[in-house]
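If your schedule permits, I should be very grateful for your opinion on a structural question. Kindly check, if you would, that the fold set down in the tokens agrees with what the sequence suggests. Thank you for your consideration; the sequence and its tokens are set out here:
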Amino acid sequence: MRSVCVYCGSNMGARPEYAQKATALGTRLAREGLAVVYGGGNVGLMGVVADAALAAGGEVIGVIPEQLVGWEVAHTGLTRLDVVANMHERKARMFDLSDAFVALPGGFGTLDEMFEMLTWRQLGLGDKPCAFLDVEGFYEPLAAMMDRMVEERFLHADQRRDLWHGDDLDALLAWMRAYEPAHASKHMDGKRRKDLR
């Protein structure tokens, strides 16, 4: 593992703990020698993660669509900033640049990007670890919703177990480094598709 993609809000959120965790994550990834790939903005938690990693001597690569250069205020102090045509190209570029994906608290965009990676993995288009790094229980309702998906047979239990959720950075990094992907063929062969109907 050489690089980690971080999805997070372009706002700071209502609690100081969100920025504290973003700072801790950016700093830790840099100190572990892992490049940070993120959305390229210098505002909100996005900017906090990037600045923390840069301050710790890390490599930070931003990927931002042309439309959002002004909205999210593109960070001009990064190791590298890729400006792409649209959100679809952004997701594909971030996927190509990253060996793992972590979501800090955020809004629609954060969830959209992470769930697209989870869907790609489910379909066998990728086999990279995905994790929700929680802060003050922010993602607990979402984790409960994913458990409900399993209970209602819209999601296989193996796919739910293949996703990390927690608040401990040591545990997160250990899990990502030990990650062994379960391929889509295992999850979604004919029998299992039938079982989920």
